[in-house]
Specification:
binds pyridoxal-5'-phosphate; 345 residues; four-stranded antiparallel sheet; seven-stranded mixed sheet; Aspartate Aminotransferase, domain 2; alpha/beta; 2 domains
Amino acid sequence: MKKHLKDIKRIQYSVDKSNYNYILDQSERTIHFPAFQKFLQTLNQEDFLLYPSTDNFKSKISKHFGVRTNEIFLCPGSEIGIKSVIEAFTDGGRVISSDPSFPMYKIYSELYQCEFFGIPHEKDYTISMEKILSNITHETELIILANPNSPMGEYKSVDEIRILLEQGVPTLIDEAYIEFTNKDSVQWLMHEYPNLMVLRTFSKAYGAGGCRVGMVFSNPNNIEILSKFRQCYEVTNVSIKWCEFLMDNYEYVDSYVQDTIQEKKKLISLMKNFDIIDSNLSWIHFNNEIDNADTIRIFDKHKVLAKFCTLPKFYYDVPHDDRKNWCRLGIQPNITNQQFIKELL
Ligand SMILES: Cc1ncc(COP(=O)(O)O)c(C=O)c1O
């Protein structure tokens, strides 16, 4: 066994979601698609018997997302895109990201024996661009920034991303939640900056977390390098069909996203008695004077699955919120009409 693996801890997040009436912990879509029965009729035995071919799927992705087919690296979930980027673009140097951020950035960096350097959040839960820039060293091989950032939800503008790209370090902008910002992807910058890679997923706004389909978009040169780590068959036939169905029926995706955004606004306006941290993501953090004791009771009663956590700590010795049970609540359309929210308010 490789010696460094001894110190790498993996936590398996495993919850039996069939025990819950509301699944609001991982930004999964839980509202059913209206035309699902119609989709099922498109499946056939060959989808299960034969190895998948991805050419037509890539053409569809190309048209839908506005990239060329040779600018697409397909992967079984965008988290494997992260792994492949670290595999292909690092050689034991520094990987800069934010802290906290999506945990797999750190785990894959450590698995590939890189120094993971997480920039701590500022007091207002933003990540300082100056601090990212001042921590770029000769050893820095990769920058990974989620935009909007997870879990606190800051969004960096195109101009700020440009400043980062100007440094010339390979940079992965993870846009797993970009649809919830109603802003455009920065993928078009890849024609200007050869060091830019953009990560997209079908798991969040598209509602296909169970299908495991993600993509890295970059210039053909980077895609060729990444493709050395391509899995033999990246995605299944059934996943391809479901994601094609979603692209063909994008109005279902978009209306879900717009409803989620509106509903988040409405919920925040109703939660006057709570401390709330809004985000550019599909969730909020909230707490109250009794550290959400009543929230936990109401959520248990109505079988609501959400995350309870502390807020990120700062490096500096500043007074900080010590409450242990900030609720990270995923928002879904019509949430404000649910009984558990009415009882909470
Ligand atoms: C910021 C971010 N990036 C990437 C991922 C990976 O998503 P997936 O592998 O389902 O595409 C997640 C999952 O939660 C995430 O939060």
